[in-house]
Write a structure and sequence with these properties.
cytoplasm, Alpha-D-Glucose-1,6-Bisphosphate, Chain A, domain 4, 465 residues, 5-stranded antiparallel beta sheet, Rossmann fold, disordered N terminus, 7-stranded mixed beta sheet, tRNA(Ser) (uridine(44)-2'-O-)-methyltransferase activity, tRNA processing, S-adenosyl-L-methionine, 2 domains, alpha+beta, binds S-adenosylmethionine
Length: 465
C-alpha cells in the first residue's frame, strides 16, 4: 500500500465528504485481467479507498448479511453457519480463515432463479484483510460471475479478484456482468467511506411490514398485473414508472390490510382520494377489496381499468372540510397533493374504524396552497419537514402515527399511517387551523376548465386601440 493511502485514511475529520466519494475512479481490467499472486486468480478491478480496515470489515459484514442491497435479483441471505477461529497470523502465512460463514442467497423470482449456497471466509493478518465468496452449487444464477470464487481486498485498496471456472478464458466481456461487478465495487467503496464518516442508514424500510412478507407479495402482484398494464397503457406518462410504483404501493397496503384483518376480522375497504389514473384503486379492487377512487378530473385509461365496475373511478371535486366517509376502513392519499394534509382529519371524522395512509409529495398546506412555511434545518430536508407537518396534523387529529419508507422508485417514499387512535380529535389549535383553512380551500381547476376559460377569453372582443 502506498504512503498516500495511509495519509488519506488518517486525515482529520474536517474532510469534505463529497471529496471522498468523488475519489471513485477504479482501474478496470475486465477485458485484460491481471494475474493475481494467487494461482488461478485474476484481478478484475481495483480502487484506492480512503478508509480504514475497520470500515472495510464493517462493509464486508454488511455485504454478507444484506446482499440484497448490492445484488438486486437477491431477496435476502439465509445464514446457516457462522464460525470464528482463533488465528495467530501476524506474519501472513496462515491460510486459516478468522471466520467462516455459510449463506444461501434467496432469489426474488423463486420460480425462475435458483437459490445459491456460498461459503464465505474472512482472512486477516497484519498485511491484508481479505474475504472470499465461494459458490458451492455447480449451477450459477445469471447474476453471478462464472467463477469458483470471487472477491478480495487489502487495507487502503479494494481489489476485486475472481477465480474463473475457465482459467484459459478469464475475460469478462458481457456488458451486464461488467456493470454488475463495477456496481459491487462502487457500493463497497461507498459503504467504506460512509462507515468512516460515521453515517448511519438514513431510510428505515420494513418497519411495519417485514421484508419477507412484502417481497413475495410484490413478486406476485408484479407478475399478475405488470406486463399486461404496461402493454395497455393509454396515458401519456411513462407506464414503467407508474405501473410498478403503484404495484409496489398496492402490495404494501395488501400486507398491512392482512395484519388489520387478522386483528379486526373485517374485510378492509377503501376510498382513494385524488386517485389520478386510478391504477392503485384498480389493483386493490382487483385483489378483492371493495372501494373506489375519486378525482377532480377523469383520465383516458379509466374505462379500461373500471371494466364492469362502473363506479370504481368517480369524478368529483372534493371540499375536504365537508368530506366524510362513514363505514370506510381506509382513506388513501397517494401523492394526492392538496388533499394529503386533510386526509387524517377526514379519517378522524369518518368513524372509529376509519384509518388512513398518505404518501406526501408536494408541500401543500391545509389551505390548499403551497405557501406553507416549514421549519428547515441543516439535518432536516424540506421533504422530511413536510412529512413532520403531516404527522403533526395526524397526531392532533387523534391518531397514533406510524411511518415506513416504501420500496418505490419515487424519492417521495415516506408512508404515514394512522390505524389506531390515541384519543378523540379535540385539539383546539388544529380545530382553529381547520376552520381557517376550510374557508380558504378552493378545489383546483382541471386542465379542461383552464382550457375552457382560455377559449372563453379568446372569444371576448378586444379593446380597440
Ligand atoms: C399528483 S396527482 C396523484 C394521483 C394519484 N394518486 C397517483 O399517485 O398517481 C394528485 C391528484 O389529486 C387530484 N386532486 C387534487 N385536488 C383535488 C380535489 N379537491 N378533489 C379531487 N381531486 C383532487 C388531482 O386531480 C390529481 O389527479
Amino acid at each position: 500500500m502506498s504512503k498516500n493511502q495511509i495519509k488519506i485514511s488518517n486525515e482529520s475529520e474536517s474532510v469534505d465528504p463529497q471529496s471522498l466519494f468523488q475519489q471513485f475512479a477504479p482501474s478496470i481490467y475486465f477485458e485484460t485481467p491481471k494475474i493475481s499472486s494467487k494461482k488461478d486468480w485474476f484481478i478484475m478491478a481495483d480502487q484506492v479507498v480512503p478508509a480504514t480496515k475497520e470500515a472495510f470489515w464493517e462493509t464486508i459484514r454488511r455485504w454478507t448479511m444484506e446482499p440484497q442491497f448490492v445484488i438486486p435479483p437477491v431477496e435476502r441471505a439465509e445464514i446457516t453457519l457462522n464460525e470464528s477461529n482463533e488465528v495467530d497470523d501476524h506474519n501472513g502465512i496462515s491460510d486459516k480463515p478468522t471466520e467462516t460463514i455459510s449463506r444461501t442467497l434467496i432469489p426474488k423470482r423463486k420460480s425462475k432463479d435458483a437459490a445459491l449456497m456460498e461459503k464465505i471466509q474472512y482472512f486477516e493478518n497484519d498485511k491484508e484483510a481479505r474475504v472470499i465468496y465461494e459458490p458451492l452449487d455447480s449451477k450459477l444464477p445469471f447474476y453471478y460471475p462464472k467463477t469458483y470464487r470471487n472477491d478480495n481486498e487489502q487495507q487502503g485498496m479494494l481489489r476485486l479478484e475472481v477465480a474463473p471456472l475457465d482459467t484459459l478464458n478469464p475475460l469478462v466481456t458481457d456488458p451486464k456482468m461488467q456493470y454488475a461487478l463495477k456496481t459491487i465495487l462502487h457500493k463497497l467503496f461507498k459503504w467504506c467511506i460512509q462507515n468512516r464518516l460515521g453515517y448511519t442508514k438514513k431510510a428505515h424500510h420494513d418497519v411495519l411490514v417485514p421484508r419477507e412478507t412484502y417481497q413475495p407479495m410484490y413478486q406476485y402482484m408484479k407478475a399478475k398485473y405488470g406486463p399486461q398494464l404496461v402493454a395497455n397503457w393509454t396515458e401519456q406518462t411513462d407506464p414503467k414508472k407508474f405501473v410498478y410504483e403503484d404495484i409496489a404501493i398496492a402490495s404494501y397496503l395488501l400486507c398491512i390490510w392482512k395484519q388489520e384483518e387478522a386483528k379486526t376480522k373485517r374485510r378492509q375497504n377503501f376510498v382513494d382520494l385524488g386517485c389520478g389514473n386510478g391504477l392503485l384503486t384498480f389493483l386493490l379492487s382487483s385483489e378483492g377489496h371493495e372501494g373506489y377512487g375519486i378525482d377532480i378530473a377523469d383520465r383516458k385509461i379509466w374505462p379500461a381499468l373500471s371494466g364492469k365496475k362502473k363506479d370504481l373511478l368517480r369524478v368529483q371535486a372534493l371540499y375536504p372540510a365537508k368530506a366524510i366517509y362513514p363505514n370506510t376502513e381506509w382513506l388513501i392519499g397517494n401523492h394526492a397533493d392538496e388533499l394529503v394534509p386533510w386526509i387524517p382529519i377526514i379519517a378522524a371524522k369518518s368513524g372509529a374504524n376509519c384509518k388512513f395512509i398518505v404518501i406526501p409529495c408536494c408541500f401543500y398546506g391545509l389551505d390548499g396552497t403551497r405557501s406553507l412555511s416549514l421549519p428547515l434545518s441543516a439535518t432536516l430536508g424540506k421533504y422530511r419537514a413536510y412529512t413532520d407537518y403531516i404527522k403533526d396534523i395526524a397526531s392532533k387529529a387523534g391518531f397514533h402515527v406510524e411511518q415506513d419508507y416504501l420500496r418505490i422508485p419515487s424519492t417521495k417514499n415516506i408512508a404515514i399511517i394512522g390505524r389506531t387512535r390515541e384519543r378523540d380529535q379535540n385539539d383546539n389549535e388544529l380545530a382553529e387551523s381547520v376552520a381557517r383553512a376550510s374557508q380558504a380551500f378552493v378545489p383546483r381547476k382541471t386542465d379542461r376548465e383552464k382550457e375552457e376559460e382560455r377559449q372563453e377569453s379568446l372569444k371576448k372582443p378586444k379593446l380597440e386601440k
